[in-house]
Amino acid sequence: MPMIEINHLRKEYREGNKAKVALKDLSLELEQGDIFGFIGPNGAGKTTTIKMLATLLIPTAGTASINGINVVEHPEKIRAIVGYMPDFFGVYDDIKVWEYLDFFASAYRLPRDRRPSIIDDVLALTDLTEKKDSYVESLSRGMKQRLCLAKTLVHDPLVMLLDEPASGLDPRARIEIRELLKELQSMGKTIIVSSHILPEMEEFCNKIGIIESGELIVAGDVKTIARSVRGQHNIDVVVLDEIGRAHAILTGMSDVVREVKFVGNRRRSLSDENPDAETQPMERRIEDPSAGGTLQIGYTGEPDEEYRILQVLVQAGVRVKAFYTPETDLEDVFLRVTKGVVS
Amino acid sequence: MPFNAANLIDNPVLTRELRVRMRGARAYWILAGYIGMLAVLVLIRYYNFWSDTQAMGSGGSNAAEVGHELFLWIALPQIFLVFFITPAITSGAITIEREQQTLDLLVMTHVAKRTIITGKLLSAVAFSALLIISSVPLMSICFMLGGTAPVQIFTFYMEMIAGSVTIGAMGLMWSSVAKSTTYAVIATYATLFVLMLVVLIVPSVSRSNGTGTASLVILSFEQTLTGNYFLGYKLVDGVGLAALCTIFGVLMAAMATARLETYPERKGYIPRILTLLMVLIPFTSMAAWWYDAWYNKRFAAAGLNALPPIGCMCLPAGMIMLLTPIFSTGSLEPEQARQFFRSLLRGWKPSALRYGSLTSAPAFLAWLVLASAALYVGVFAAKGSAKSAFRSGGLALGQPGQPPPAPLVIPCKPGEACSAQGSTVTVAHPDGSSEAASVVPNGQVQVLKTFTNGRSSITFMRAWPANIPRLPVIPPQGPPPPTGDLVQGIVSLVAAILGFSLFCMSLTALFRTRWLAMLAAYVLVFTTSLAPEIALQTNRGGTTLSAWINLFYLNPMEPFVQICEPASYWDQRTLLFGLTPMWLGVTIVWCAIGVVSLILLLFCTRQIARSADSAIEYLPATPVKAARRSVRPTQ
Ligand SMILES: Nc1ncnc2c1ncn2[C@@H]1O[C@H](COP(=O)(O)OP(=O)(O)O)[C@@H](O)[C@H]1O
Ligand SMILES: [Mg+2]
After folding, report:
1. Is it the case that residue B178 has pLDDT exceeding 70?
2. pLDDT tens per residue, range A111-134
3. How many angstroms separate the CA of residue B518 from the nearest CA in chain A?
4. Pick among A12, A216, A335, A343 to test the B interface (most B CBs inside 10 A)
5. A10 - beta bridge partners?
6. Ligand 2 centroid distance, CA of A198 (Å)
7. Which end of chain B is flanked by fewer CB atoms within 10 Å, N or C?
8. How far is B400 from B478, CA to CA, in rounded Å?
9. Which residues are paired to B381 by β-bridges?
10. Given a cut of 80, is residue B168 above it in pLDDT?
11. Is residue A40 in contact with ligand 1, taking CB distance under 6 Å?
12. Which of A20, A51, A210 to mutate to test the pocket of ligand 1 (most atoms within 8 A of CB)?
C-alpha cells in the first residue's frame, strides 16, 4: 500500500461567484521513505496541495489518503500521523523555546512524564539545545524554521509535509535545514517538501514532481526524469590546454554529442555553498583556444558507451584532466519542462 | 479521539496563556494598581464617615448606610472591569492567532477544539476573577459596617463570574467569526452596548407602562431570572440569571468551537441543542409562573392582576423570531442550490437537523416552536390539568367581552373630570393639571401627574390614592370577538417562523453575503415590531391611525396577546382585516411572504447553481502536454 495516494485531486477557490482553479487534476503515489520534492514557481499550487493533505483545506474533487486513511473522512486521524510545517507561520510572544515545544507536546497529548525527554531529543536533532531557555522571538529566522521543524517532530509523525522549509534563509541556514532533512530521511520518514528553488532539492529527494499553473507536468524518479526530459545527459570534460581543438573534435562527433558548451576555465564546484548563485553553467565564448577549461557536452548515445568520447579525445592527444557526469541538474530539467520541451 | 478526563485538566492552551499572562511584572502592576485604586476609594469614603462621626457623635452618618455605599463603591468598578476587560482579552483570542499565523499549527494538533476555546475563555475569566477576588478583603469592611446582607455579596460575586463567562464567550464568538481583530473588537463592544441598552431600558419601560401582557411577560421573566420564582421555587437571589448567563455563554463558546472545526457543519447540532435549552428552560419556568398566577392566584396578595397563561407564549414567539436570522442565513453551497427544494425537504430529516445545514433551518425553528408548545402543555399536565392548556385563552376563561370604545366617564368631585380607559383612571383638575393612576404588575399603584406647565412626574404607591376614584367594574357587553386558542396560536407562530426563515434565506441568496442578509433581517424585525407600536402610542386618543399599524400582522406575538386579552385588544387597534382574529391574519400574511420568498429562492438558487457551473478558469492553458505519471518505484 502506498503511503500517500492522491487521485484526481482538484481545488477551486471561490472568489465571489466565480471559481478559481488552483489545482487541476493531481494524481500521485508515494511509498514509505520517499522524499518527494514538489517544485514549481510561486502560485503553482504547491501550498494548496499540501494544505489539502494536511486537512486544512477541503478538496473540490478527487481523493487523497495517507497511510490508507482518507483525508476528508477522517481529518483527526490524519492529523495524528502528519507533521505539517506551513510556508508562513508565526510563533507566540513571550514564550521560551522549551515552553513552545512543551505546548505542542501537551497539545499532541504526549504523556506528561515523557515530554521533557522528547523535547530534549527534538532540540538535539534540530541543533537548538543551547537555545532551550531563550525566548522564541529572539531566535533568528533560520532557528525559528528549525524550531518549527522541531515542533513538527514532537509527535513522531509518519509523514512530514514541509512547505518551503528553506525559503528566505541565508546559505548557511539552508544547509542546516538540508542536513536536517537528510537526517529525517535516514529515520525513514516519508516527506513531501516543496520549493520554488531547485538546487536545494536535488541532494536529498529521490523523487520530484514539477507543477505549474495547477498541473503536475512531470513526476517520478529524479534520474529517470532527467533522462526522459532531456533525451541526453551532460558530461563535463576538463582539459589542461588546447581547449579550442577539444571543442572542434567534440563538435565533430555529432552522432552522439548534441551540443558542446564552454562553461569556464575552472572546474565547477559540485557542492556550491550558495545555491542561488548560478548553478546553471553559462555558455561563454572561448577567448584563448590554447588555454585549458571545462566543456559541457550533451551526450545522446548509449549510457555505457561514454568512454568512447574519452577514447577519441585521448587518442587525439588532448590532455584530459577530468571526465565526469555532473550531479543531475534539476534546474536544467525544470527549464526544459516548463518551456514545453518534453520528449 | 476517545474522551480522556485527564485532558480536561491538562489544557495546553490554558497553560500557555496563563504562563504568558503572569510573566514578568506587568500582571502584578495591574493587580497592584487595581487594588490600590479600590483601597483609595474605600479610604476616602471611610475617612468621611469617620470625621462625621467625630464631629457629630453617633448622630452623624448611619453606619449601615455607609456600609452599603462602600459596597457600591467597590462593586461598580468591578462591573466595569468585567464588562470591559474580559471582552478586550477574548475578542482578540482567535483573530490574533490567525493574524500571527499560529492557528493552523494549533488546530493540527490533537487538542479538541472545545479545549482550545475553554482554554482561551478560562484564561480570560481567570484573570478577571483574580482581580475580582482580590477585592474580597476590602469587601469585608462593608460587613463590618453592616448594611449589606452576606447573600447580596454572594449574589454579586456569582453574577460577576457568570457575567464574565458570558461576555468573554461573546468576545470569543466574534473572534472566531471576524476577519480581523479590529472587526472582532468593534462587533464585541457593539453587541455589549446593545445588550446593556436592552437590559437597562426594557424593564424600566415595562414597569412604567401599565398592565398589559408585555409587562407581565417581562415581570415573569425577571422573576425567573432573579430566582424569586423558578418553577415554583424561590432560589438564592440571582441564581437564575447566573444560570441563564452561563448557558448563553456556553452557547456562544460552542459557536466559536464550531467555527474552528475542519467541517463546522458536522458539529451543527451543538449550537442548536444549546439554543433549545436557552429558550426552553426560562420558558418552562415562565409558563409555570403564569399558571400559578392565574389559576392559583399565587401573586394576588401582592395585588397582581394576572392574565390568562397563554400570554407567556409571547416569549418563545419573540425569541425564536430573533433567532431566525441567525439560523436562516449563511452560505448556500452550489450542491444545495442545484437541488434547492429537495434539500429543503431533506432538512426535516434527523441527520440534516444534526448537521445543521442551512436548508434545515426552517425545520429546526419549527421544531423549536412545537417543543415550546409541548412544554406549555407539559406544565399544565404537571400541575394536573393538561386539558385546560388548550383552553387557556381569555375568551375560554370567561373574560369580559368587548369593552366600550370610548373612555368611561366616572362621577367625581365637582369641577373635576374623571374617566377610565383600560385599567387607568384619569382625573382632570380645574387648573389644567391631571393625575392618572393604574395598578402595575408588581402590585404597586403608578400615579402619573401632569402639571399645568406641561411637565409630568411618576410616583409609585402601595395603595390606591384616596383622591382618585377607583376603577369601576365594567359589565360584559355583547358577544366577544373571536380569538382562537393555543392550537391556532401555534399554527400562526409556525407559519410566521417558516415564512420569516424562508424570507431570510432568500435574503442570503439575494445578497450572497451572510452578514448583509442578517443585518437586513434584523432591521426588518425591529422596524416591524416598533413601527406599529409607535403608530399606536403617538395616536393615543386620536381617531386616525397611520397605516403602519397594520405591521402588527407581521408580529407573531400579537395573536397570543389577543388570545390573552380579548377584551381590550381591539380598543386602540383598527387593523386592515377588522375584527378577524389575529392568528388568522398573521398566518395569512406570513404564508404569503413565505410563498413569495420561495419563488424568489427558486430564481436565485438557479442563478447561483448556474454561475457555479460556469466557473471561470483563470489559469492560462499551459502549452505543455501533460506527461503526468504516477510516481512509483520501477522495481
Ligand atoms: N485563499 C485563496 N483564495 C483564492 N485564491 C487563492 C487562495 N490561496 C491561493 N490562491 C491561488 O491559488 C493559486 C495557487 O496558490 P498556492 O497553492 O499558494 O501556490 P504556491 O504555494 O505554489 O506558491 C494561486 O494562483 C493563488 O493566487
Ligand atoms: Mg506556497
Report:
1. yes
2. 889 999 999 999 998 889 999 999
3. 18
4. A216
5. A61
6. 14
7. C
8. 9
9. none
10. yes
11. yes
12. A20
**Minimum-distance ligand to the CA of A38?**
1
Q: Is A4 helix (H, G, I), strand (E, B) or coil?
A: strand
Flag whether residue B510 sits within 8 Å of chain A, measured between CB atoms.
no
Q: How far apart are CA B602 and CA A78, in angstroms?
A: 39
Which cell numbers hold the place of B291? 399558571
**Could you tell me if the CB of A17 is within 6 A of ligand 1?**
no
Cα–Cα dist B55/B299, whole Å: 48
Q: What is the DSSP string of A280-312?
A: SPPP---S-TTS-EEEEEEE-S-GGGTHHHHHH
**Residue A276: what pLDDT?**
41
Q: Whose CA is nearest to atom 27 of ligand 1?
A: A43
Q: What is the DSSP letter of B230?
A: B
* Of A275, A270, A273, A293, residue with least CA distance to A283: A293
The set of cell numbers assigned to A23 is: 489545482
Contact B168, B136 (CB under 8 A): no
Distances (CA, A) of B336 to A61, A240, B343, B609, B618: 16, 74, 6, 9, 25
B109 and A79 within 8 Å at the Cβ level: the answer is yes
Q: Would you state the cell numbers that stand for residue B306, as one nine-digit string?
A: 394576572
Look up the pTM and report it.
0.72
What ligand 1 atom has the least distance to the C-alpha of A164?
A: 21
Partner residue facing A28 (CB), from B111, B512, B631: B631
**Does any CB of chain A come closer than 8 Å to the CB of residue B623?**
yes
Chain B residues with CB inside 8 Å of A37's CB? Answer: none
Return all residues near B540 (Cβ < 8 A) that are at least 6 apart. Answer: B572
pLDDT tens string B353-408:
777 778 889 999 999 999 999 999 999 999 888 888 888 887 777 654 444 445 56
Beta bridge partners of B602: none
**Cβ neighbours of residue B431 closer than 8 Å, sequence gap 6 or more:** B452
Range list of H helices, B58-102: 63-90, 93-99
* Residues constituting chain B: 635
Q: Which residue has the higher pLDDT, B145 or B36?
A: B36
- Residue stretches of chain A with pLDDT short of 70: 16-18, 197-200, 202-203, 226-232, 265-283, 303, 326-343
Rounded to 5 degrees, what angle do the CA atoms A312, A315, A318 make?
Answer: 90
The residue nearest atom 14 of ligand 1, judged by CA position, is A45
Task: Return the amino acid letter for B241.
Answer: L
Question: Which residue in chain A is spatially nearest to B620 when comparing CA positions?
Answer: A213
Q: Taking CB atoms and an 8 Å cutoff, what residues of chain B touch A99? A: 16, 19
Share above pLDDT 70 across residues of chain A, in percent, rounded to a whole number: 83
Identify residue B317 by its one-letter amino acid code: A
Contacts of B628 in chain A (CB under 8 A): 25, 27, 215-219
Q: What is the pLDDT of residues B40-71, one digit of tens each?
A: 888 888 788 778 777 766 555 577 777 778 88
CA distances from A43 to A22, B115, B365 (A): 8, 35, 44
Q: What are phi and psi of A24, to 5 degrees?
A: -90, -60
Q: How many CA atoms lie within 13 A of B470 on its CB side?
A: 5
Mutate to test the pocket of ligand 1, among A11, A13, A212 (most ligand atoms within 8 A of CB): A13
Cα of A220 vs centre of ligand 1, distance in Å, is 24
Question: Is the CB of A216 inside a 6 Å radius of any atom of ligand 1?
Answer: no
Instruction: Examine the pLDDT at B144 and tell me if it is beyond 80.
Output: no
* Of A94, A107, A337, Cβ closest to residue B110: A107
Report CA(A48)–ligand 1 centroid distance (Å): 6
| Amino acid letter for position B127 | F
CB B148 within 8 A of CB B66: no
Residue B86, classed as helix, strand or coil, is: helix
Q: Which residue has the higher pLDDT, B622 or B140?
A: B140
Q: Which of B113, B617, B631, B635 to mutate to test binding with chain A, by most A CBs within 10 Å of its CB?
A: B631
